[in-house]
Amino acid sequence: MVNTFWVSLFICGVSLATAQPIYEKEDCLECLPELAPAIAACLAEHGTDGIAISVCVSEIMSPNECYSQEIVCCVLETYFNIECQSYDRILVTTGFIGDEGQAVAMNSEVIDLIDPNLSCSNLESAPDERWASVGGLLNGRPIICGGFNGTDSFKDCFFVQGDHDEEISMTQIRSFATAIDLKDKESNEYLWIVGGYETEDLNSTEFLFANKKSEQGPTLDFVIAHHCMVKVSESAIYMVGGKQDGEISPQVWIADPTNNFEVKKGLSLQKGRYFHSCAVYQDSGAVKIVVAGGFGDAGPTNSVEILDPSKSNQWESGPALPSISDSLYAGQMVSSPDGKGVIGAMGPSLVEFRSGAAEWTIKRQSLKYGRTMPVMFAIPNDLTSCGTKV
């Protein structure tokens, strides 16, 4: 008899709508008692968004028969009611190019981070020229909001895939903000958009939904823009550095979405910076935060700081970014598809730092259009088609 304790325990806490499973329960029945506790523990730690699920599959997989990708996905889909989807690709859209021809930054490039020999079809272009926007996935569709065009900032949002007839906008004009994908108690997906600039830097936040009007979020006790933001766990979102109350700041704040977005002070960076990038990765079972590039008091910097929130009492210096012509200035970083590294865009180059590595590496994949201040995030593989480069 199968022990379903772990399965029922987790499903009671999460209700998700998924695509029709491609597996039958009998396909993985024998492996259920062995896999269920590991899957439940991983999802409880990392959450149930698509990227977290992809990371959990990667963490749990091993050569053991029960730990193959097919069996892990079978258990996820048939017993946990969670769709098993790969997030091996990134979308890079909008951004500032300047002399090379700003219009080409409207292109929505898709890069496969696993196979450098694949060339992927682009998603739909942005409707106009803008940079310093925010974006994410809402109900599996990439959405971009706000931004700046050199003269004006924007309030509107647009999808770069699918129906464009929906009119979605933020509650206020903002650029140079940040956004994080979250789910409410009913599993409705939304973006939490934080700070930024309208006619001055902001302390407001908001919740952007795909299926209802945007709502004002909690007001912060500080003004923040040109910062970066990462989700470390379901109860910890880190807001890092940037311009805070008008000054270049090393200050870090931690918001808890499970407790009405209560905000507390975190460990400050070694040095203040803005226009930087950050992302998280897995290292020996711990989730670590990488903060890289941007501007400090002395101008552009290639310096890197790393924090292990579970045990460190200070940020540590990490390997400096590669010495190439383009800086990681107002760029973006994402977690590597397996969760064990971070990837940033330095102009057209994609650079990666891996768990246990002593330095960054330049990936074989690259962007056609190098840009600063783009929107860049992981997307499901099934959003676009890729083929072998000719």
Give a description of the structure:
The protein is mostly beta strands and 390 residues long. The protein has two domains: 75 residues, no CATH class; 300 residues, Kelch-type beta propeller (Neuraminidase), CATH 2.120.10.80. It is 12% helix and 32% strand. It contains four helices and 29 strands. The strands form nine sheets. Strands 7-8-9-10 form a four-stranded antiparallel beta sheet, with no helix packed on it. Strand 14 and strand 15 form a beta hairpin. Helix 2 packs across helix 3 and helix 2 packs across helix 4. It starts with a helix and ends with a strand. The relative contact order is 0.13.
State the main characteristics.
single chain; 390 residues; mainly beta; Neuraminidase; 2 domains; four-stranded antiparallel sheet; 29 strands; globular; disordered N terminus
List strands and helices in order, with pairings.
Elements: H1 5-13, H2 32-46, H3 50-60, H4 69-79, E1 89-93, E2 109-112, E3 118-120, E4 134-138, E5 141-145, E6 157-159, E7 178-183, E8 189-194, E9 205-209, E10 215-216, E11 224-225, E12 228-233, E13 236-240, E14 243-244, E15 247-248, E16 252-256, E17 262-265, E18 277-283, E19 286-292, E20 295-296, E21 299-300, E22 304-307, E23 316-318, E24 333-335, E25 341-346, E26 349-354, E27 361-366, E28 375-379, E29 386-388
